[in-house]
Amino acid sequence: MRLALQYVLSVIFIGQMYLAMLVLAIWFTPLVLFRREAAYDAVHTYCRWVRWSASVLVGLRSEIRGEVPQAEVLIASKHQSFFDIILIVSAVPRPKFIMKKELLWAPILGWYAKQIGCVPVDRGRRSEAMKKMVADVKSGRALAGQLIIYPQGTRVAAGDVKPYKAGVGVLYSELGQPCVPAATNVGVFWPRHGLLRKPGLSVVEFLPPVPPGLTVPAFMARIEADIEGASDRLMAEAGFRADRA
């Protein structure tokens, strides 16, 4: 009975979450047309609403730990579900992502992504897009902000192991910016697939920044050790044990 109720509440939560996206997008669009900065107000408002409504409807509280990046940095984050995106975007002042080019055509989402400076990447021409992005950052053409990238390239279920891809190391090397690793345990409560949202405390933790200047292999080894170690610790705190054998 209790599990059934949690499923019902989860469905209600998910439905209102997407309804809120539509309502807030309509509300903020006239403001964004006259003031681009309002796009950040819109995404921050939406993400904070999702965090609050998750707590009220399904008992999923959330917390940001560590020093939130304020300057122009690269954020390399563990990605377990949509909720870690929500937490990071709710916290950093000027979030932007490297995203699939097809998402530019998604209603609402694509337009707002463009307004906050997200970088569209064609899967077949990824290296070319990366070079252009680096050139735009160095020339000042790109919007300043916190560039969020997922080193494993996809959502990874709690406890699963997937390799870290070298693209984040190339960006770190070429941009010459500090990189802030971020760990999370959100997949314990909000899985990659399915409707059930479990009660508990979900956390995104910003870890000590990695200064520019490391070689790509040294950088990759460091962020993987930092992110995986901290994520395992956060998952253990939530009662989950990751099997690394």
Question: For the residues shown, what is the average pLDDT?
Answer: 89
Largest sheet: 7 strands, mixed
Report the radius of gyration as a whole number of Å: 18 Å
Q: Roughly what fraction of the amino acids lie in strands?
A: 5-15%
N to C succession of SSEs: HHEEHEHEHEHEEH
In total, the number of domains comes to 1
Q: What is the CA–CA distance across the termini? A: 36 Å
What is the overall silhouette? globular
Number of strands: 7
Relative helix content: 40-55%
Sheet/helix structural class: alpha/beta
Return residue spans where pLDDT drops below 50 for at least 5 consecutive residues.
none
Biggest sheet, spatial arrangement of strands: 1-7-6-2-5-3-4
Number of helices: 7
What features would you describe in this structure?
The structure is a single chain. With 245 residues, the protein is α/β, with parallel strands linked by helices. The protein has helices spanning 2-34, 38-58, 82-91, 109-115, 126-139, 167-175, 216-237; strands spanning 60-65, 74-77, 95-100, 119-121, 146-149, 179-184, 200-206. Strand 3 (95-100), helix 4 (109-115) and strand 4 (119-121) form a beta-alpha-beta unit.
